[in-house]
Amino acid sequence: MSDYCDTSKVTIEKTTKDIVYDMVVNKHYAGRWTGSKHIYAIYYDMGEHSFFDAKEKKLIGCIIYGYPVGRRTSSSIFEGIELKDKDVMELKRLWIEDGYGKNIESYTISKSIKLLKEDEDRAKIIISYSDPAENHKGIIYRASNFYYQGNDIGHSPNYMFKLPNEDKWITARTLTDRIDGSVGIEEVKKKIPDIEIKVAEKKHRYLYFLCNRGEKKRLIKQLKHPLVSYA
Length: 231
Fold this sequence. Notes:
The chain is an alpha+beta fold.
């Protein structure tokens, strides 16, 4: 297979949680489902199938959008603008099986945004993050014409945890799934004295404007955090 995806064989369709749930939970690095509003399945045309000469489509990935958790995210975007619940969508999950071309992620994002505009016509902006802890640099967002805001947003530090006899560092949210009660630093140390704790590098934040050019220009002027050049 060539380095680039044969996009003529890729289709992206609205789908449901039950179709992609196992894929997200078992193959995406987060290892858990997320709050979702619009779920899109990614299919690849594998060619003619002998049964009635039908084309065989293989499910190779998914992309999921939803509302950001809590009002802190929405309020952190603009200065002097109160966003409504449906003004902001977050790109929450993207997973695609390897081997279908290095441009398939950016192609999927582009096509899914067109579908999202039809399905969520009130939304003004998409927000998304890349996680340095997973060696994600956000290259696919840059290739998809997202604006970059760096990784110096937010004042409170985030922490990563490594449980005894385990090799992988996990987030506070993942730790919450593993233990009962608070994951505050002191509480965790009392419950698991041998746990390792470190300050996590902040996630890189990206924005994509769904509104028209005039409104986009106005909104950019009122961003609470400046746009920065890609490193």
